[in-house]
Design goal:
Elements (H helix, E strand, L loop, with lengths): L1 H24 L3 E4 L2 E4 L2 E9 L4 E6 L5 E10 L4 E8 L4 E5 L5 H10 L11 H11 L3
Antiparallel strand pairs: 1-2, 2-3, 3-4, 4-5, 5-6, 6-7
């Protein structure tokens, strides 16, 4: 009986530690006035166009395009897919459904494709593409 209570306490402690770690690492992403804001810091800029079917993300430093998302009709898959293109790395992938551009950026930051400065980690990008590519 004592061992099971001790195991339960250890398990609960581990769960609480993991949850706190997740909360600390989960910074808020905001899209405001053409800026991508992580926490309270501008890290990238963005532009929406074509009635929301295109979304482009740029670096703050030199205004270089680092991500281009657009809705494409893909006849080979019979339907519309969102294409995520990373021009600097010349890599892309497709997703059938996205919730919002903000949610997609949040995933990219959470999976550490973008770091806190807005720089892309190419190894993390490769993993992300394998994880989320739907074509």
């Amino acid at each position: 009986m004592k061992n099971s209570k001790l195991d339960l306490k250890k398990s609960l402690s581990l769960v609480i530690i993991l949850m706190l770690g997740t909360l600390i690492n989960a910074q808020q992403i905001k899209l405001k006035n053409d800026n991508v804001i992580l926490g309270e810091k501008n890290v990238l800029t963005y532009k929406r166009s074509d009635m929301g079917s295109k979304f482009q993300v740029y670096t703050l430093k030199d205004n270089e395009e680092v991500l281009f998302i657009n809705l494409q009709n893909t006849p080979e898959r019979q339907g519309n897919y969102w294409k995520f293109y990373f021009p600097v790395q010349d890599k892309f992938f497709f997703k059938k459904i996205i919730n919002s551009f903000k949610d997609e950026l949040k995933l990219l930051f959470q999976d550490k494709v973008f770091d806190e400065e807005g720089t892309i980690n190419e190894a993390k990008l490769d993993t992300y593409i394998k994880k989320y590519n739907e074509l």
